[in-house]
Amino acid sequence: MRAVKSVTQVFMTVNRMTCVLAPLRYAQIWRQFIPFAIGIIVFSPFLVIWNVIISYTFPVSIFGGFTLAYSKKVRWASLSLFQMIFMMISLLITIFTTSITLYKMRKLENRLKSSERTLCFASFYMSAAFLSAAVFQNVGSPIVMILISGQLRYHVIPVKRLAPKGSTVVSVSSVSRKL
């Protein structure tokens, strides 16, 4: 579903951009493009999970429950790699199309500007939410790990007052000895 979210976000921002760039041909363009867009949206999850589909899956017991794990048929093809690729491509396209939309909005006539302003600002706010979610998804886990784990925090930022309470901070220095 993350792939669907990324692809849908791209189509939404491209939709708003074409509405601003070609308002008279907008309906015709999207009438022809919608079947293609729906096909990509439906097919996009399979571009991420294809290795899971062809791999051996098995249940794993975790904390009284279970989850499904898999042994990869194609070693280099991980879910996180493909999710990251989808997210980065979506981010780039979203930034590009939103920038063009906002730039062209400044150049529109007042009559068109007032009718499109609300839709474009709504699109901009959704793009901003998508961008912030993508940024926090990409860097959120390491930040949370550093904030929660005192030992990891001290390892990343070696300041004694950041060391975990109740632990001993040992300074290691190298000593060269002649034998």
Describe the model:
The protein is mostly helical and 179 residues long. The chain has a domain of 110 residues. It has a two-stranded antiparallel sheet. The model has no long low-confidence stretch (mean pLDDT 77).
Any descriptors?
single chain; 179 residues; mainly alpha; two-stranded antiparallel sheet; 5 helices; 2 strands; 69% helix; 8% strand; flat
Q: In a nutshell, what does this entry contain?
A:
This protein is 69% helix and 8% strand. It is mainly α. Strands 1-2 form a two-stranded antiparallel sheet.
% residues in beta strands: 5-15%
What is the number of helices? 5
- Run of helices and strands: HHEEHHH
* Derived structural class: mainly alpha
Overall mean pLDDT stands at: 77
Number of strands: 2
- The gross shape turns out to be flat
Major beta sheet, strand line-up: 1-2
Task: State the helicity in percent bands.
Answer: 55-70%
| Cα Rg | 24 Å
